[in-house]
């Protein structure tokens, strides 16, 4: 009897590759990278490289999935703007038992997935650590970072155990909602400030103006979190500032990398979410509005 877990990766980019490269080495796991036919053709031709090594992924487009077993776990790690469209690429592998673990930036990915697959368990998750550097199909990362998982038991515990067994740094926060908002507040501040000013961590750390801009963005996010009764808001900005100041100076956030590469940014997941919620609660968020107006397409 085949007892291998079938894990499907949706989004073989800067975040998704980090757990996948370790899961790929586990004999008890079958790993499939899912994408549309055009992208799969490019992956097969050009490969996906991590720290200089080509990864031996199995790829499948929706048209090729009929012979494959249903997914036990789907790791959703696309960019936020492409999530809804990308979910169609895993529909053929989705069964009632399939559990989704989103690892995207922002705080809304689990809602998007749950709406598309209402009968499936959708966990919550995110990565916090040093940013990967992505240049086309080549990704580099220094190994510093942790994946945080929460949601319905026992599925969250089982997903965490799979990652831990593969050597992926994984934690189960006591309050995943607060934990996700902590990461979100950090992203709202640091990703958007770097993108807005074209500045890496080192430039931010040396600039009172940029640090103040980031703090304003984060304070606006915290005001939204308080309206939503998220716990731990009193330390979110201070904790985020501490993370920013401890990062290696040469590192660039994913949003700045997107700007420099001419890719669509995730501003809608950051400032877009803040502005939408601010309108709902009747709050003014001028700093996030300024960022949204600059980058939203």
What are the defining features of this structure?
297 residues; alpha/beta; Rossmann fold; N-(1-d-carboxylethyl)-l-norvaline Dehydrogenase, domain 2; 2 domains; six-stranded parallel beta sheet; 13 strands
Structural account:
The protein has 297 residues and is an alpha/beta fold. The protein has two domains: 5-171, Rossmann fold, CATH 3.40.50.720; 176-295, Orthogonal Bundle (N-(1-d-carboxylethyl)-l-norvaline Dehydrogenase, domain 2). The chain has twelve helices and 13 strands. The strands form three sheets. It has a six-stranded parallel sheet. Strand 10 (133-135) and strand 11 (138-140) form a beta hairpin. The model has no long low-confidence stretch (mean pLDDT 96).
Q: What's the short version?
A:
The chain is an alpha/beta fold. It is built from 12 helices and 13 strands.
Task: Work out the strand percent.
Answer: 15-25%
The profile of the biggest β sheet is: 6 strands, parallel
* Order of neighbouring strands in the sheet with most strands: 5-2-1-6-7-8
User: Which outline best applies?
Assistant: globular
Average of per-residue pLDDT values: 96
Helix/strand order: EHEHEEEEHEHEEEEEHEHHHHHHH
Write the layout of secondary structure elements.
Elements (H helix, E strand, L loop, with lengths): L4 E6 L6 H7 L5 E6 L2 H10 L2 E2 L2 E2 L3 E3 L12 E4 L6 H5 L11 E4 L6 H8 L4 E2 L1 E6 L3 E3 L2 E3 L4 E6 L4 H11 L4 E2 L4 H22 L3 H5 L2 H20 L8 H11 L7 H8 L6 H14 L4 H10 L2
Parallel strand pairs: 1-2, 1-6, 2-5, 3-11, 6-7, 7-8, 12-13
Antiparallel strand pairs: 3-4, 9-12, 10-11
Helix pairs in contact: 6-8, 6-9, 6-10, 6-12, 8-11, 11-12
């Amino acid at each position: 009897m085949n007892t291998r877990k079938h894990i499907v990766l949706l989004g073989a980019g800067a975040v998704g590759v980090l757990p996948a490269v370790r899961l790929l080495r586990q004999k008890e796991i079958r790993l499939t990278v899912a994408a549309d036919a055009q992208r799969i053709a490019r992956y097969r031709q050009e490969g996906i490289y991590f720290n200089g090594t080509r990864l031996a992924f199995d790829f499948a487009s929706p048209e090729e999935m009929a012979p494959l077993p249903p997914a036990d776990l789907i790791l959703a790690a696309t960019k936020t703007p492409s999530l809804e469209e990308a979910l169609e690429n895993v529909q053929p592998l989705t069964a009632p038992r399939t559990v989704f673990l989103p690892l995207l930036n922002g705080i809304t990915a689990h809602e998007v997935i749950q709406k598309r697959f209402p009968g499936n368990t959708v966990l919550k998750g995110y990565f916090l650590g040093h940013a990967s550097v992505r240049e086309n199909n080549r990704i580099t990362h220094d190994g510093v970072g942790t994946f945080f998982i929460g949601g319905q038991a026992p599925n969250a515990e089982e997903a965490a155990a799979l990652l831990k067994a593969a050597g992926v740094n994984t934690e189960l926060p006591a309050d995943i909602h607060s934990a996700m908002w902590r990461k979100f507040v950090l992203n709202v501040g640091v990703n958007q400030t770097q993108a807005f000013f074209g500045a890496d961590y080192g430039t931010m750390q040396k600039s009172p103006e940029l640090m103040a801009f980031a703090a304003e963005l984060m304070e606006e996010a915290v005001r939204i979190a308080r309206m939503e009764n998220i716990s731990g808001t009193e330390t979110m900005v201070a904790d985020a500032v501490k993370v920013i100041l401890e990062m290696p100076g040469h590192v660039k956030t994913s949003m700045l990398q997107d700007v420099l590469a001419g890719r669509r940014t995730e501003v809608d997941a950051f400032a877009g979410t803040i502005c939408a919620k601010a309108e709902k609660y009747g709050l003014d968020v001028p700093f996030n509005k300024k960022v949204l107006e600059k980058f939203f397409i």
